[in-house]
Design goal:
With 153 residues, the protein is mostly helical. The protein has six helices and no strands.
Length: 153
């Protein structure tokens, strides 16, 4: 039993446009008499004819690209000035979110009752709190460096 050839719609459209080459072209040539391939080829040919009648591409004037690039290069574009007010606002929101996360994280940890059946483990909540606080402060310092200090230089 012969397996179906793997001919895609893109291959058929390229075949009709004359842009298909190599093995793909030979594959379509060898199987273009199959009923489903022939039907798809005729459908794409009708579609090309329909679109070709309605969509005529205009050719640009000679030197269009050169004139366009000259006009783009002639524009004097300046970057928008940075606003310290926006940076302060973002930093404030970030600090509030980090502090709220640390507070509710520690609050959630302190409300947990962990019971491990095989091990008698006592969690030191103060060390967890100081660890979270340290991470929070390091995050704030890092954000301050990235947003505030580096934006000025």
């Amino acid at each position: 039993m012969m397996s179906k050839p793997k001919i895609t719609d893109d291959m058929l459209m390229d075949y009709l446009d004359g842009n298909l080459g190599g093995d793909a072209h030979r594959l379509v040539e060898a199987h273009k008499n199959l009923p489903e391939i022939t039907e798809r080829l005729h459908e794409f040919a009708r579609l090309n004819a329909l679109l070709g009648d309605h969509f005529v591409m205009d050719t640009p004037n000679p030197g269009f690209s050169h004139k366009l690039m000259e006009s783009v290069l002639a524009l004097q574009v300046t970057a928008a000035p940075r606003s310290n007010r926006n940076i302060s606002f973002v930093m404030g929101i970030a600090i509030i979110i980090l502090l709220a996360g640390a507070f509710f994280g520690v609050q959630g940890i302190s409300d947990m009752e962990i019971q491990l059946p095989r091990l008698d483990v006592q969690l030191d909540y103060r060390s967890i709190f100081y660890g979270i606080l340290t991470m929070l402060l390091l995050s704030v310092i890092w954000m301050f460096d990235k947003v505030w200090v580096q934006s000025r230089f």
